[in-house]
Amino acid sequence: MDTARRSAFYIFCVLILLAIPFMVSTAAPQKAAKAPPTAKQASSKEAPSKSGDVERGRYLVEEVAKCPECHTPRDANGQPDRSRWLQGSPIWITPVHPDSNWANYAPALAGFPSFSDEQGEQILEKGIGPNGLPIRAPMHIYHMNHADAMAIIAYLRSLPGRSQ
Ligand code: HEC
Asked: What span, in angstroms and rounded, lies between the C-alpha atoms of 139 and 95?
């Protein structure tokens, strides 16, 4: 092989190598394109059916946001106690860096006794408490959509409060 043909051959090889990632990446979306129907099926099952939907609220509280991890007292095994579900609990996590604005107690949510619907929506949609101040850590600053906040409040109101 003379030098010109050899370098032409090298360039050809380099071009093939460069083309491989493109071939792979154009092949991948076809695979992904098959996925949406199942993803859609799954989400349509979970989609909010109507605002203030109690079952939807239970799902968001228990499975998605995990509110009981902080708002339910623990049993002897360190698990959230079902018999005192969402009845308020001391906070067991501490900040890595000292935080003078850290809240040590998560209030009772069962029955949603302490807040109006509007206050609950402001807490869950804007992260602002009834006192007009941002919610303190470790409570999250949520930016939920209105339907989700209403579903959560409806679920919390459906639970027996401490006095019952
Ligand atoms: C990581 C722990 C944690 C999780 C998870 C959590 N909270 Fe809280 N929550 C707190 C703490 C601590 C406070 C007390 C904040 C304060 O005193 O300022 C609080 C306060 C609240 C308040 C009262 C706010 C106020 O200003 O009085 C409401 C209502 C509330 N949480 C609802 C929820 C709901 C609903 C969820 C789930 C969607 C949730 N929380 C998840 C820890 C948590």
From this structure: 12
Please state which CATH number belongs to domain 51-158. 1.10.760
pTM: predicted TM-score of the whole model, two decimal places: 0.74
Q: What is the model's pLDDT at position 5?
A: 74
Of the CA atoms within 13 Å of residue 15, those in its CB half-sphere come to 6
Contact residues of ligand 1, CB 6 A cut-off: 61, 65-67, 69-71, 91, 103, 106-107, 109, 115, 120, 123-124, 129-130, 135-136, 138-140, 152
In angstroms, the CA 150 to CA 123 distance is: 11
Take atom 26 of ligand 1 and give the residue whose Cα is closest: 129
